[in-house]
Design goal:
The protein has one domain (about 1-95): Double Stranded RNA Binding Domain, CATH 3.30.160. It has three helices and four strands. It has helices at about 15-25, 70-95, 105, and strands at about 1-10, 35-45, 45-55, 60-65. Strands 1-2-3-4 form a four-stranded mixed sheet, covered by helices on one side. β1, α1 (about 15-25) and β2 (about 35-45) form a beta-alpha-beta unit. α1 packs parallel to α2. The longest helix is centred in the middle third of the chain and has 24 residues, at about 70-95. The mean pLDDT is about 85.
Amino acid sequence: MRITVSGRHMDVSDSLRAYAEEKSGKLERFYDRVHSVEVVFDLEAGKPRCEVIARADHQMTFVARESHTEIFAALDASVRDLERQLTRHKEKHRNRKHTAPARAETEPLSGPSPFGGATAGLEGEQES
């Protein structure tokens, strides 16, 4: 998995770069088809902002943006959001072939019963 860490309007320190690579490296646990992660730090009106973009197979792109007073907390929040997105996508993708039970199995029978000719739904009435 390729990880890119960059900064807009700021320099990214070595400790922040190492922390971002460590955190974003764990995203592969949640969805194994992720092939690249881009982490972009930005100073927006003096407030740190983090954007994490994960690209997976079939041109799937997952984006999480968070602002916080601390840059490390912004990274943690955006990675947590991306983990949720990846897990949800994986569950939907894995369970998409499960269908609801057939309609005939869930609806009550109406009409003649195969057990003696009485109709279903006429409880308490007996034939004379």
